[in-house]
Structure formats: structure tokens, C-alpha cells
Amino acid sequence: MAEVLERVTKVIVDRLGVEESQVKLEASFKEDLGADSLDVVELVMELEDEFDMEISDDDAASIGTVGDAVTYIQSKL
Amino acid sequence: MKLEGKVALVTGASRGIGREIALELARLGANVAVNYSGSEAKANEVVDLIKEMGRDAFSVQCDVSNSEDVTSMVKETIERFGKLDILVNNAGITRDNLLMRMKDDEWDDVININLKGVFLTTKAVTRQMMKQRSGRIINIASIVGVSGNPGQANYVAAKAGVIGLTKTTAKELASRNITVNAIAPGFITTDMTDKLTDEVKAEMLKVIPLARFGEAKNIATVVSFLASEDSAYMTGQTLHVDGGMVM
């Protein structure tokens, strides 16, 4: 968990240019981290690369918060 | 050279306008993936010509209306050249008929290749271009997509669709420094237009202010402009390259 969260956080900080302290599990990409829809698509692409997995469009649509991303990735590892 | 080190994928590049586009981009320094559907020998000829110029090229068979084929074509291009800077959506067919006689499959074939093909290929390259934070997408539409043309309901609908798709894609991708523009060629002498009757050709000539048919090269040079830094501040546009036919 901790390791996945750490890697996800790094991707989010790099991609969205936010502070690490803002990346909380309950933080919504769009509401809290200032991402637009294209940012979210891009973020999902980067997570796919980071964790070497494919995230289907349907699954990607259900990822709205940092916690969603972490939970999803852990379930696939 | 203004495209030195760039990588381009040109669909429908074995013949006609696409062939000239592939050669022109290579002349200006780009390495080129030469897509073809049926004409393997012709595509390989284009590859050989590009290699003679000292650039790298390979031919890749793909039906652009098939999502899986398109994905693997784009993947192969990126694996081979390490990146992808320029996509030219040029592949196209005609199945002309009067609306009242047009069969469903004539409509579907043209929409699938000329419109869905552009959608699929654009979608497939976007990931790479977004990562690169740069890209040039150039769609070859047609002047009839602007003006309409009797006997070409399917083709005109597809080409008008490409112009709309160009604008939307341009808006979606602008923030990632990817520009998307279209070219609307008029009457260009190719295998596709050779099929028209002399009567039709004579009629068309009457409405072309420059009073001559265009050559594939006339389109290729505009593509190279849109592919280069020279057009950096243009996106979502459709350039008419038609001897003044539609203003």
C-alpha cells in the first residue's frame, strides 16, 4: 500500500504540478487537484506506464480520487 | 532542413497524393512510415526512394478502418523510430454514385475508410504526441467536403466530417502543443481522378480560376508547411489548395 501510494503520488505531483501534501487519498483529481479531463486521461496513461499495466477506459472512468487510483492499482498487481 | 530528425506516418502513401507527401517529408529530413492497404510493391518503391535520400523508411500494411490494425501500425512506427511527430491522414477511397442509387455498402466503405480511419489513427497517435508535448496532425480532406458534389454523397459526407473532426481534435489537443489542420485539395491529377470522365473534367476546369488541375506536389508542399515549425501558430484550419475553386 505505502509503496503504491508513494509511486502514485510522485506521478501526480509531476503531472499536475501540485504539492505532495495536497495528494491525500480522498483528494479528487478534478475538484481538489485542479486537473481537467485531459489531465486525468494523461494521468491514467502515466500510471499505466509506471505500473506496467493496462487500465481500460471503463475502469479509468471510475477513477476519480487518489484513493480510487491506489485501490485500483493494488487490486491489479 | 526543416523536418530534420522528425518522424512521420503517412497513410495511403503508396500512390497519388500520399506518395508525394511521403517523399516531400523525407526530402525535408523526416523518417517516414509508409502505410498502404493493397499496393505493397508501390509502397516499397516509395520506401526505396526515401532510403536513397538517406532517410529511414519502412512500409506497413494496414486497413485504417480496423482499430487493431491501426494500433499495431502506430506501435510499430514508434518502436522503429522511437517517437512520432507527424501524422498525415491521407488514405481514402471513392465509391461514387447518385444518392438514389447509392448502396449501403458504398456508403459504409467510404465512411469507414475516409472518416473512421482518421478518427482511429488520430486516436492511436495521440498518446505518444501528448507525452512528447508536441505533434502535428494533418488531415487530407477535400474541397467537395466544403462545397458538396453530386454523385459523391458518401465521399462528401466523410470529408466534411474530417473537417469537423479536425476542429474538435485541434481544440482538445491544443493545450498539449499538438496542432491539427486539414487540407482541402481541389482537382489533383491522380489515379483516383483519372477515373473521372473527360466530360466531368472539362466541367471542373471551367470553375477553376487558375485554369489548370493541380499536381500531388502542390498538396505535398502545403503538408510540409503544416508539418513544420513554420505553421506553429495555426490549428483547426482547413486550407483550400484548389486553384481558387472554392473561396
Structure, explained:
Chain A: Residues 2-77 form the Carrier domain. Chain A: GO terms for molecular function: acyl binding; acyl carrier activity. Chain A: The modification O-(pantetheine 4'-phosphoryl)serine is found at residue 37. The complex is a heterodimer of chains A (77) and B (247). Chain A is mainly alpha-helical and 77 residues long. Chain A contains 4 helices and no strands. In chain A, α1 packs across α2 (37-51) and α1 crosses α4. The longest helix of chain A is centred in the N-terminal third of the chain and has 15 residues, at 2-16. The termini of chain A are close together. Chain B has 247 residues and is an alpha/beta fold. Chain B is built from 9 helices and 7 strands, in the order βαβαβαβαβααβαααβ. Chain B starts with 6 loop residues before the first strand and ends in a 6-residue tail after the last strand. The interface between A and B is small, with 3 and 6 residues.
What descriptive keywords fit this protein?
heterodimer; A: 77 residues; mainly alpha; 4 helices; 0% strand; B: 247 residues; alpha/beta; seven-stranded parallel beta sheet; 48% helix; 15% strand; globular; Sc_DH/Rdtase_CS (chain B); lipid metabolism (chain B); lipid biosynthesis (chain B); oxidoreductase (chain B)
Task: Report a brief summary of the structure.
The complex is a heterodimer of chains A (77) and B (247). Chain A is mainly α and 77 residues long. Chain A has helices at 2-16, 37-51, 57-61, 66-76.
